[in-house]
Amino acid sequence: MTRDESNETDGDTEVGERGDRIDRDDVSTRTDASDDSDTSERASAGETPSDEDPSESVPVENVPSEGGTAGDATGDGANVGDTGGAFEFGSRTRTETEVDLDVDEVLADEEDNTGLFDDLLSGEPIFENKEVLRPSYTPHELPHRTDQINKMATILVSALRGETPSNILIYGKTGTGKTASAKFVSQELESTSQKYDVPCEVEYINCEVTDTQYRVLAQLANKFIEKNKAVIDNRLSELRDLRSHAAENLDALAGTEFASVDDVADRIADLEGDREEIEEVPMTGWPTDRVYTTFFDAVDYHERVVVIMLDEIDKLVEKSGDDTLYNLSRMNSELENSRISIMGISNDLKFTDFLDPRVKSSLGEEEIVFPPYDANQLRDILQHRSDIAFKDDALTEDVIPLCAAFAAQEHGDARRALDLLRTAGELAERSQADLVEESHVRQAQDKIELDRVVEVVRTLPTQSKIVLFSIILLEKNGVHNVNTGEVFNIYKRLCEEIDADVLTQRRVTDLISELDMLGIVNAVVVSKGRYGRTKEISLSVPIDETEAVLLSDSRLGDIEDAQPFVQARFDN
């Protein structure tokens, strides 16, 4: 029976299945509700029904029954006596205890309804400023690099006099402070130029990412185009203010280059036209000579000295040759307003051996070498950064010395030391530890080493990957300390399976030596007596993780299907 059907009785209102009738005129209690038309009424059972429209009667719900009795689901009364009363919910009567239990359940549900990150945020953080441990951070102080910084400053100070500084080449292994020092000096140079109102700018290019002449020139061109637009916008704002003031009083033009308001308006129109004609260089699609011309015009737009910092400059030369460096180093002879100086940063001391002699002579006017840090210097650097990066007393006393010792083994790599300290802190924080301890540093060392291996393997050339996979297949099939001949046999079979060129055994031996230098394999030359000498090769990296990285390369996807074929060779 529907609610409407239950209400269509002789002026009576039926409640649930109990058959109780109530009269709206005899209601003794009215409960509050958000809507006046939706109220519950308390009534005595068996009273005379009202003559009012029965459709106005509503079911009694959530109301204590009078006299301590209430009907149950079957229509029988239930005397609750001293239990504190009962509450009717539709056709069922519920006790106060049951209602209290429901409230407790709701509150418990609300307590359980915590967000995914609430527990993680409840602990006390270990870090104060994690960013100071990242490679992108440029510190305000660089311990143990005073000599190199001072030498850079003495070369670049001529820019503050409006002169062209000599080109600089900066050498040093990874993590020796080359880029950080160069950026520090560059920031000081630009800050001082603003102080003395000298137009001097530094532009940074990472040649490991921007590794072609087109990309380098396009990125530089667009940077200067944006700066030129800003100069035009500032000038337009000044001229529009001048035109407005001059329209009210011509004396506003006194001491300016303009004789009338129309002259100001003409100048504004010219600048607006110039700005409209400026076109940014797309990242692809233009002839290189057009990109170069656009860059040339953009940099020569007004008077300034520009230092172009080319980080990982050897990657640019390796990928695209020395055309970019040749063009940049020859620009000053054609520029009218601006002057350019090049600051190249490289991990490879010998990369200039591949340069054209003319480029080499003009580019390497000044050279600065950054030696590796020793363990004590690394400890100073870590202590300086940790004071900013971590909360007070967040590190145990053995954390920094251990990080420094690990990094000193990696040719004094400060970047590695900082990365190790940051990772140790992150591991401690994830485990909700109160302190960063020695165990976290050792865990971080293992994690970073595995990450390094994965990255190195991922970026190997295809032929090197095939050679490495050959070694993995041999080891997985129980052949340890394999020799070059065994590797070459598997290598040939794999090349046939994926339709790759087969290199000579001598070239494969060279690739094994390169893998040895990268620390991926350990290759030891052993004598076989009258059979000559050979290399015994073993993996130096986790076999499963390395195999997974190799098979993630789509070009080597078919190698996985070749494994049963190679396995059969050992079974026969």
Automatic annotation (TrEMBL):
Residues 71-81 have a biased composition (Low complexity). One of its GO terms (molecular function) is ATP binding. CDD domains: Cdc6_C (cd08768). Residues 164-374 form the AAA+ ATPase domain. Residues 468-550 form the Cdc6 C-terminal domain. InterPro entries: AAA+_ATPase, AAA_16, Cdc6_C, Cdc6_lid, ORC1/CDC6, Orc1/Cdc6_arc, P-loop_NTPase, WH-like_DNA-bd_sf. ATP binds at T176, G177, K178, T179, A180, Y373, R385. Residues 15-33 have a biased composition (Basic and acidic residues). GO terms for biological process: DNA replication. The keyword Nucleotide-binding applies. Residues 1-98 are annotated as: Disordered. The keyword Lipoprotein does not apply. Keywords: ATP-binding, DNA replication, Nucleotide-binding. HAMAP family: ORC1_type_DNA_replic_protein (MF_01407). Belongs to the CDC6/cdc18 family. NCBIfam families: orc1/cdc6 family replication initiation protein. Involved in regulation of DNA replication. This is ORC1-type DNA replication protein.
